[in-house]
Amino acid sequence: MRIRFWNALALAGALLFLAGGARAQTQTNVTATIKDPLGIPYSNGTYSIQLIPTGTNPSVNGQSIGGAFNGSTDANGSFNVSLWPNASIVPGGTRWQFTVCTNPGGVAPPLGTGNECTPPTVVTIAGASQSLSATLSAVAPGLTTITLGTGSVTSVSGMAPIVATPNPIVGIGTISCPTCNTSSATIAGSIAVNQVAVGSGVNTIAGSSNFTWNAGTQALSVIGTGVSRIGLDATGTVSFIGGLGADIFLPSVLLPGGISLIISPATNGIVGIGNTTATTWRYDDSTGYTSWGGSTSGRASIGVQAIAGTPNPLLLPSATAGVNTLLQSDGGSPQTLTWTAITATNCPLCVLTNQTNVYTAGLQDFSGAGVTMEIPEAAGFTTNVNSTIGLDTTANAIHVFVNNADSLNVVEAVGITVNVIPKSTDATHGLITASLATDNGTTFTYTGTSGVTAPALGCGVLNTTACVITGFGSTSGTATITWPAVAGTTTNGLSFSNVVKVADGSTSGVAYGFNSAPNTGLYYNGGSPQFSVGGANIAGFTSTMFTFSTALGTAALKIIMSATTPTIAAAGCGGAAASILANNGTAAFKIGVGTTPGSACTVTLPAATTGWNCSASDITTQTTAVSMQRQTGAESTTSVTITNFSDLTVATAFVANDVLKVTCFAD
After folding, report:
1. Which of 142, 143, 417, 610 is the residue whose CA sits 20 to 30 A from 23?
2. Residue 138: which H helix or E strand, with range?
3. How many CA atoms are closer than 13 Å to the CA of 588, on its beta-carbon side?
4. Pick the residue with more confidence: 426 or 592?
5. How far is the first Cα of the chain from the last one, in angstroms, to the nearest whole number?
6. How far from 114 is each of 43, 70, 144, 248, 584, CA to CA, in Å?
7. Does 335 have pLDDT greater than 80?
8. pLDDT for 38-74, tens place per residue?
9. Strand partners, 662
10. pLDDT at 588 (0 to 100)
């Protein structure tokens, strides 16, 4: 099979590799579902397709095509493959031959016939699509020894314990089993009148006097441990009888409003009332508190002081409390409680939020050992009232409103030493830090490594004299840079009196930029020239290979071909006499087959990124036994195996001393 490659790379306009394919052609979508005469599919079988006559080196539009295909059918005995129409294939007069076989072993005897294959069937392929289901199924051998007969049922007879009525049934009738046991449960002991049967073991039922149902009075009675009992009579009345010291629990389904209730002798009354659990409300006379449980967790309690006196009831308000309010009593009996706004009068020691707090005249002293004062803070804090202060937690900046203006308090982020010129670290935070510049009153000093940006240097006289900048060597000599007569265009370059040397670059820092696109140009990388486009390597060279990237945006370069001479693996191509006769690296080379050849020839290649794609042809012998040469075997980054096939796609031995032409590209 010949392989087409797509390659395109350039280095300084000096190298271009192109791989072309045939112009777009239309293949025929060939489908088939193969079944034997009984309709049994050739499931998970194999198919073989061969272009005949063989050995004609078929092509479409000047490009070689494959002449043999193999594959598998699916569970339904179907396959789908794209083939060139015979009318498009050169030389003319070709047809496609199809053979379909069962999966290994087929349908095993004695019910099956074992391995089966359709006879080779020759078909002319044409059009956009073509189905061969009928053609191939018509010649498909049967897969079983089963034959189908004809006939009908004329009568049905019954044998004990089955009863057929009438017996035999020759038309309409019934089949029954009056003595069959349709239940697997057994009775252990007796079940008295009104007792409800319950399971007493596996497939065993029994009655109990603690669980009864009186059909006459429509009464249900359930008796538990001791004398506790639940009863339900025909009027719908539910009765609960608790045993000695036992609680009685009424679930919410039995009470209106979804209320649950527990009555316990231990607490002399109500233990729980609520709409969820029995612990929502509780009365506990041992502590004198009444507790309310939260709907999910927690509780609150109210109690009475354990002293003598006349209780004064509290009447709670029905309204909802507002912001900054307190619960205030009117002093009556009973006491009426209302929600009242907090003021300096009713709460002189209160500090209010979102309101003005009035302090007495004089110094408001917040000093003291270990005492700190925290200013207001909020995300995005700003202020517009004189003498107010606050912290913006988003920008981490302190705002002080002075003279009707919001000012940022400058904060020193890093300590600034003498003569150091400060700089802002953030335009919105009011933070400053030390810069790399100092001024001692007479000298300005900059300690950075990137230099100081200055206005553009004026050089030359427009329309009169070109700009020339001359530099001096550290020991002797000069070097100049000269501007062209017509500057300011990309076609008029600068002239350098000496070779320009630059440091190694990278994809994001090219040494020579080709245009205004960022990170686009040529750079040197550890002994290898490299191309970068938009920050991605697209090509590179070493002393022995040419590499490229499969797509922009992929920094890693991949080898496409190598100047390294391929070698023959030990005894890998017909014995020790095998050799590489001539080569142009991996791009094209000849193999001389040894004197004791087999069907395979293994070649060792330089290491590729993922593997090698190779095509080969025997230029010495072309017979039915030496018909085609293909790359076979597992993918390897350092070797390929070329196998010789007959015209029937059977691996056969090469002819001794034959010459193979091979082309390999890395993928």
Report:
1. 610
2. helix 133-138
3. 0
4. 592
5. 17
6. 13, 21, 8, 78, 53
7. yes
8. 999 999 999 999 999 987 789 999 899 988 999 999 9
9. 589, 616
10. 94
One-letter-per-residue 3-state SS of 43-67 = CCCEEEEEEECCCCCCEECCEECCC
Helix, strand or coil, per DSSP, at residue 515: coil
Do 269 and 247 form a contact (C-beta atoms < 8 A)?
Answer: no
Measuring CA to CA, which residue among 32, 42, 34 is closest to residue 113?
A: 42
How many C-beta atoms surround the C-beta of residue 300 within 10 A? 10
Domain ranges of the chain: 28-138, 206-296, 377-409, 512-556, 561-666
Reported confidence tier of residue 3, pLDDT bands at 50, 70, 90: very low
DSSP per residue, 277-332: -TTSEEEETTTTEEEEE-SSS-EEEEE--SS-S----EE--SSPP-TTEEEEE---
- The fold for domain 28-138 equals Immunoglobulin-like (2.60.40)
| Cβ-contact 206, 197 below 8 angstroms | yes
- 388 touches 382 (CB < 8 A): no
155 exposure class (CB count in 10 Å sphere: 0-12, 13-18, 19+): exposed
Smallest CA-to-CA distance from 191 within 209, 203, 204 is with 209
Q: What are phi and psi of 36, to 5 degrees?
A: -80, 180
The answer to whether residues 506 and 521 touch, using CB atoms and an 8 Å cutoff, is no
Q: Which of 99-113, 354-368, 373-387, 647-661 has the lowest mean pLDDT?
A: 354-368
- Name residue 590's amino acid: K
Q: Which amino acid is at 21?
A: G
Residues near 50 by Cβ (< 8 Å), separated by ≥ 6? 67, 68, 96, 97, 99, 648, 649
Query: What is the per-residue pLDDT across 526-535, written as a single tens digit (0 to 9) for each?
Result: 666 776 666 6
Q: Give the H/E segment covering residue 133.
A: helix 133-138
Nearest Cα to Cα of residue 425 among 588, 416, 417: 416
Pairwise CA distance, residues 123 & 587, whole Å: 39
pLDDT at position 17 is 28
At 389, which amino acid appears?
A: I
**pLDDT tens per residue, range 450-471:** 666 655 556 777 777 778 888 8
Strand partners, 389: 400
The answer to pTM > 0.70 is: no
CB of 466 within 8 A of CB of 483?
A: yes
Helices and strands (DSSP H and E) totals, the chain: 1, 52
pLDDT band at residue 258, thresholds of 50, 70 and 90? very low
Most confident of 115-119, 272-276, 396-400, 572-576: 115-119
